[in-house]
Amino acid sequence: MTVEKEAKTYLRIKNFVAPFIGLAVNISAYGTENIVTNGKVILTCNHRSDMDPFILSYTFPRFISWIAAEYTFRIPIFRDLAKIAGGIPMSIDGNISLGSIKMIQQVFKKGETLGIFPEGHDYMVKNDFKSGMVDFHSGFAAFSIRNKVDILPSVIIPIEESYSDIPIPPIVRSFMGMPKEVCDIKKRAIYKKVKVIYGEKVDHREFLSGSLEENMKQLSDVVRSRMISLQEGQYAEA
Fold it and tell me: Locate the Phospholipid/glycerol acyltransferase domain: which residues (predicted)?
């Protein structure tokens, strides 16, 4: 499926699902003037719940091609939705297949948005929903530097939420090939009221000279710092 077809499918699904999300969760968006309205960009966000991509997509006006853990493509229903809506699988160890790399390059070539959660599933594995962001994986920084793409940081701040057991039992998760740490997750966060906050984009050009490894770390640190500032900034108060 081409990026154009994926974008149309994504928007059809979004238009269908959005009213239900809006009824289930009270969502407010701030800093929307910072949203890059056209051209290639990497959208980053914190990752506390399996609801996050749906919440973010609700407030973001453009097609988002999401990077998702490879094992999530084995989950019934989600697997099919992810494939037809442009989801891109990536291994939890950071390795990415040649096919997925080509998919990412097509997203950028078409001037679209690549969505990624730099925490991976680590925050949900920690299962402490009162804690701050965990350390970032730096793969998103490599995508930015190698493809010369700016990064748009965002955060989801829960105002009201509840917690429930994961609906898929551990033994079933294991049978589906999920990593042990994911099989052991006890609870999931269910949002009732949230804020989505968008920050100013981070210019990739400041990280092009010198060592790629050092630049990846610096860019990752800058983006994480910006996202923490969004969590603690003027829109953070309930």
Answer: 41-164
pTM: 0.91
Residue 54, in any domain of the structure: yes
Residues sharing a CB contact under 8 Å with residue 221, sequence separation 6 or more, in sequence order: none
Domain range spanning residue 166? 3-232
Gyration radius (Cα) of the chain, Å: 17
Domain assignment present for residue 133? The answer is yes
pLDDT in tens, 109-140: 999 999 999 999 999 999 999 999 999 999 99
- The whole-number pLDDT of residue 146 equals 95
Best CA proximity match to 70, nearest among 138, 120, 113: 120
What would the DSSP string read from start to end of 186-216?
-EEEEEEEEEEEE-PPBPGGGGSSS-HHHHH
Is position 238 within any domain? no
Counting the structural domains of the chain, the total is 1
